[in-house]
Design goal:
The structure holds 2 protein chains of 2 kinds. The longest helix of chain A is centred in the N-terminal third of the chain and has 34 residues, at 82-115. By secondary structure, chain A is an all-alpha fold. Helices cover 77% and strands 0% of the residues of chain A. Chain A contains 18 helices and no strands. Chain A starts with a helix and ends in an 8-residue tail after the last helix. In chain A, helix 5 packs antiparallel against helix 13. Chain A has 2 domains: 41-80 and 284-316, no CATH class; 82-270, MetI-like (MetI-like fold). Chain B is of the alpha+beta class. Chain B has 2 domains: 4-229, P-loop containing nucleotide triphosphate hydrolases (Rossmann fold); 234-372, OB fold (Dihydrolipoamide Acetyltransferase, E2P) (Beta Barrel), CATH 2.40.50.140. Helix content of chain B is 28%, strand content 33%. Chain B has helices spanning 43-51, 93-103, 108-121, 137-150, 167-184, 195-201, 219-224, 229-234, 267-276, 363-372, and strands at residues 4-12, 18-27, 32-36, 58-63, 66-67, 78-81, 155-159, 187-192, 204-209, 212-217, 241-250, 253-258, 261-264, 280-285, 290-293, 302-311, 316-322, 325-331, 342-347, 353-355. In chain B, strand 17 (316-322) and strand 18 (325-331) form a beta hairpin. In chain B, helix 2 (93-103) crosses helix 3 (108-121) and helix 2 (93-103) packs parallel to helix 4 (137-150). The two termini of chain B are 39 Å apart. The chains are: A mainly alpha, B alpha+beta. The interface between A and B is medium-sized, with 21 and 29 residues.
């Protein structure tokens, strides 16, 4: 294998050079932290997915190698266990809808505040930051009471007072699956909107105001300006926010965990992939870390592919400008 | 094509900042009017009021006989070119120029024809497939002009369109723009802080300072007969020289006393100085309206010391000190002068302008105003 040995000696040489360079000294601490908190846990997870580890009985199980057994079990459950199936259906619906709410909501808010006067805009934006600033438990509790399936629940209270319903409706448990999905999309959507809003607002503020004035003088309405000037110029930011939110939605589970635990939403249709991993590793009667690790590894692979596809779909490579012409 | 008329236009911004106050201005059909003033003087505000981007707090704006005060920008049919050109970076040159036409829902074949013809006129027809960032500054400026002209506007508004160009390019574009405006015969309002640009291109210049119009006139009028100290000091490079003088009388004839120098009052001011009864005046003399002599002439020359000599090639600027204040003299002759050498300045008396130090207005202006009251 002459080719590969040449390659590896080259790589080794490059590595040695890097270690000797000043850059390595400069980056040492950062690299160390990345290794300890990021790379090593990933390696451990991948390793765990090849062992029958359960109930954190490391002495007994961590040394046993079972090959692809956990991955096989994962796909078997996915194909046959209705509650695991519903988890993946929920993940797909949750991510798609919440992503749409996050990106389109943030974009609409940023553009809407661009067209109204600044003072009102500031107040409006602060309002949308509140979910982000509220502790997760408090925030979840607010919506818990909002959707509570009794007369103390805000929605039920209002509907009852208005005479629209005669007895409280249990949205999260009674209307399956869309009631549960509506609640988790709503709650997470509100949290995520502020992120896009901030990115888009600052991006819009960086668009020279002459562009908008010029368009207005040329006869463009607010809608024309939005469609033909603002959105095309926010292309990169939309791409960034979409990718970022997609990846964070695939791995988020904090709000969902509380909503499911408190029984506000149906367990099967309120649990997403990442919450399923958490539950499998830490919560169910038989804590199956091997299976959870395998599910986690597959989630990382799927996230990477989806992230790559979003970047491709939205033309990341086209955003890199060709060199300036001969002028 | 139309004339533009501003009647008592005042703009007060939120927070009470006064942009412009009581502007009265008529721009004739086909005229090239420059709005000239230092930054923050309100010239761009005036332009944006005409474009309809700002609504006046008080006053009315007319295009021809039509009152456009309340009309939004798109119903005024104006073409606007910005200092930074405001080209849409995500659109090719063609689409940039076609943008206003597409908003009007003109058929695509007609758009194509108009874009190509205006691009040919501005000699950018070879660049239609490029993006703005692939163009040089001069080319971008042409694209911005093309975009403004493609919609065949009634009024062309230019907001310092050349200040982002380098000095050499600016001078060549200057002539081209003037020629283009003449050929199209389009009513044009040109905002600039560069007095040379205004003098070179405009049919008339409106000088704006602190939100008010100070003087309106042809380039030679505003240059030769400044109505205030501000106008004299703003126009010309180097600008007008100002010397403080006391008015004295010799044999019942008024004379100007500048330090130890006695100077006769120019004929056209004798009467005015007497009538207004001023004790102090400011003498304004353009640098090119002074000669340099070795010997004094009674009542005709001012004694001065050479401070510095700046040879500029075609002309020489002599900086001299008169009674503690500096004056500049532009002379075409290549004269040999030492620093601190005594010289005698011989002004062209018919070109002198006298100002009242209190109001900073030229005496004839002051007299007219007093007569009106």
């Amino acid at each position: 294998m002459p080719k590969s040995s040449v390659f590896s000696s080259k790589a080794l040489h490059g590595f040695k050079q890097f270690v000797r360079s000043e850059a390595s000294r400069f980056l040492a601490l950062a690299l160390f932290l990345v290794a300890v908190f990021y790379i090593i846990p990933i390696c451990i997870s991948v390793y765990m997915s090849f062992t029958p580890l359960r109930n954190w009985n490391i002495d007994r199980y961590a040394g046993i190698f079972v090959g692809l057994e956990n991955y096989y079990r994962f796909f078997y459950l996915l194909a046959n266990d209705p509650s695991v199936k519903s988890v993946f259906l929920t993940t797909a619906v949750f991510v798609a809808l919440t992503l749409a709410v996050n990106v389109l909501g943030g974009l609409s808010l940023a553009i809407a505040t661009f067209f109204v006067n600044e003072r009102a805009a500031g107040g409006l934006q602060l309002l949308w930051l509140l979910p982000r600033m509220t502790p997760i438990a408090v925030y979840s509790l607010i919506w818990y009471y909002f959707f509570h399936p009794s007369s103390i629940g805000t929605i039920n209270g209002i509907l009852y007072k208005l005479g629209l319903i005669s007895k409280p409706i249990d949205i999260g448990q009674g209307i399956i699956p869309w009631g549960a999905w509506a609640i988790i999309v709503f709650v997470n959507g509100l949290v995520g909107v502020s992120y896009g809003m901030i990115v888009f607002t600052s991006a819009i503020n960086n668009i020279p105001k002459e562009l908008v004035i010029a368009a207005r003088v040329d006869g463009a309405s607010n809608w024309d300006i939005t469609r033909k000037i603002l959105v095309p110029m926010l292309r990169w930011h939309i791409l960034y926010v979409t990718t970022w939110q997609l990846l964070s939605l695939l791995t988020t589970y904090d709000h969902l965990f509380l909503l499911v635990k408190w029984g506000l939403v149906n367990r099967d249709y309120g649990t997403t992939w990442s919450l399923y991993i958490y539950n499998t590793a830490f919560l169910t009667g038989l804590q199956d870390q091997g299976l959870a690790a395998a599910a986690g590894v597959i989630l990382v692979i799927v996230s990477s592919i989806l992230g790559f596809i979003t970047l491709k779909l939205m033309g990341f490579d086209k955003l890199i400008k060709p060199p300036r012409g001969d002028l | 094509m139309v004339s533009v008329k501003l009647v008592n236009v005042t703009k007060v911004f939120r927070g009470g900042v006064v942009g412009v106050k009581d502007i009265n201005l008529v721009i004739e059909h086909g005229e090239f009017m420059a709005l000239l003033g230092p930054s923050g003087s309100g010239k761009s505000t005036t332009l944006y009021l005409i474009a309809g981007i700002y609504k006046p707090t008080r006053g009315r704006i007319f295009f021809g006989d039509k009152d456009v005060t309340k009309l939004p920008p798109r119903e005024r049919n104006v073409g606007l070119v910005f200092q930074n050109w405001a080209l849409y970076p995500h659109m090719k040159v063609f689409d940039n120029i076609a943008f206003p036409l597409r908003l009007r829902k003109i058929p695509e074949s007609e758009i194509r024809k108009r874009v190509v013809s205006v691009a040919r006129m501005l000699r950018i027809d070879g660049l239609l497939d490029r993006y703005p960032w692939q163009l040089s500054g001069g080319q971008q400026q042409r694209v911005a002009m093309a975009r403004a002209l493609a919609k065949e506007p009634d009024v062309l508004l230019l907001d310092e369109p050349m200040s982002n160009l380098d000095a050499v390019l600016r001078i060549s574009v200057r002539a081209e723009l003037k020629r283009l405006q003449r050929e199209l015969g389009i009513t044009t309002i040109y905002v600039t802080h560069d007095q040379a640009e205004a003098l070179a291109m405009a049919d008339r210049i409106a000088l704006i300072n602190e939100g008010s119009i100070v003087q309106i006139g042809t380039p030679s009028e505003v240059y030769g007969k400044p109505r205030t100290v501000f106008v004299g000091g703003f126009l010309g490079n180097p600008p007008m020289n100002f010397l403080e003088a006391t008015v004295g009388y010799v044999e019942d004839k008024p004379i100007l006393v500048i330090g130890n120098n006695k100077l006769r009052v120019p004929d056209h001011y004798e009467e005015l100085v007497r009538k207004l009864g001023l004790n102090q005046v400011i003498v304004g003399i353009r640098p090119e309206d002074m000669g340099i002599m070795d010997k004094p002439v009674p009542y005709r020359t001012i004694r001065a010391q050479v401070y510095a000599v700046e040879p500029m090639g075609r002309e020489t600027i002599v900086v001299a000190e008169v009674d503690g204040s500096q004056v500049k003299i532009v002379t075409s002759k290549s004269i040999v002068l030492r620093e601190d050498q005594d010289i005698h300045l011989y002004p062209s008396f018919e070109k002198i302008v006298l100002f009242d130090p209190k109001t900073e207005k030229a005496l004839e202006v002051l007299y007219e105003e007093e007569k009106l009251e």
